[in-house]
Amino acid sequence: MEVFRIGLVGCGRISDIYLKNCKQFEDLDVVACASLNLEESRAKAAQWGIPKACTPDEIYADPEIDCVLNLTIPAAHAKVSRNALNAGMHVYSEKPFVTDLAEGREILDLAAQKGLLVGNAPDTFLGGRWQTVRKLIDDGVIGAPTGVSAFVPTRGTERHNPNPDFYYQLGGGPLLDLGPYYLTAMVFFLGSISRVAGLSRRTFDQRMIENGPREGFMMPVEVDTHCLSLIEFESGVIGQMMMSFDVWDSETPRFEIYGENGTICVPDPDPVHGANIFQGDIWVRTRDTARWTHQPRPTGRENWQVAENTHDYNYDARGLGLLDLAHAAWAKRAPRASGEMAYHVYEVMDAMLKSPEAGRFVDIASRCVCPEPLPENFPTSEA
Q: Is the Cβ–Cβ distance between 177 and 273 less than 8 Å?
């Protein structure tokens, strides 16, 4: 059986869920892990049974590695991705794609030049919940979509993360941290975005870490922490979005899609992590129904009248996009969680942040292909 060999760069907290899932995905094999701190690399290798703990440069020099899994902090994403591509390796990164639009274009051009694939989180849209929403839309359950809204009212990350500093530095903030989940889902459902407008503010110049060994430490805040946006899609659908680290709580639905004949509501059971959820409830109400109807993800064709796909991924399946990238490399196709889509989403967020200074809507130059839903029984169906 063919196996996709992975070199992990970045051994922080986020790596554990990736490594857990990579062990469940038989087509993936993490053969080395690296960080700037070699002791951290060794501890991660011991924890997960990874054969080799090393430096990032040793990852790039290893001819046996097919792909770099880039889990570094946002400010380092572009550098690590370039290093991987220059070493002849595919790359899959955490979000955001980059922290500079020109660097994003450079990475895509470099990958095309070398015939390599670039994939990028979030891959939550490949989970059972969001695949179900796509099926409802494709089947016309709510008619032609007309609008979309997303709201993530959170109080930031300092209450649960002992080292939340980077969330408030370049590449951080609620829009770049949480926005990719919702904007990627919107593009998956509704296609490319043509223009946006935004307002944002930095409510506090400092914030206090409220847990762990650094509890009480005051962090500087360098990014806006409450962001409002208006969105227009190429299809004519319009939308609105709020991403905030400044809201204590809210009853506002987290994600809704409006159609000519009905509404899909996706409540979010996890106010800390936003749409960072592959599974969960979906509610639908149409012109023909007097009440909301619960739409669970099917476990088989026979027990749900709308969806036919039988895969589920109704758990935190982070790394599913990496698995799809492996199959894309073997099949010589584009990955679903593609660098092109991540670049488009980043351009959208960059424009939202620039809109207040411009005092107008900002046009989005890039476009991306709307990914196909996962096939039945993925990855067996593509093996």
A: no
Which residue type occupies 310?
Answer: T
Find the distance separating the first CA and the last CA of the chain, reported in whole Å.
9
DSSP track, 43-65:
HHHHHHT-SEEE-HHHHHT-TT-
- Distance between CA atoms of residues 348 and 194, nearest Å: 9
Structure token pair of residue 249: 């709580």
User: Does residue 290 share a domain with residue 190?
Assistant: yes
pTM: 0.91
Smallest CA-to-CA distance from 318 within 152, 127, 146 is with 127
Residue 380 in domain = no
Instruction: Give residue-wise pLDDT tens across range 229-258.
Output: 999 999 999 999 999 999 998 888 789 999
Q: Which residues contact 251 (CB under 8 A, 6 or more apart)?
A: none
Residues in the chain: 383
Range of the domain at 53: 4-120
Q: From the CA atom positions of the chain, what is the Rg in Å?
A: 20
User: Does 134 lie in the same domain as 55?
Assistant: no
- The residue among 201, 291, 287, 289 whose CA lies nearest residue 244 is 201
Res 350 pLDDT > 80:
yes
pLDDT in tens, 251-299: 887 899 999 999 999 987 554 444 457 777 889 999 888 788 887 654 4
Q: What angle do CA 29, 34, 39 make, to 5 degrees?
A: 125
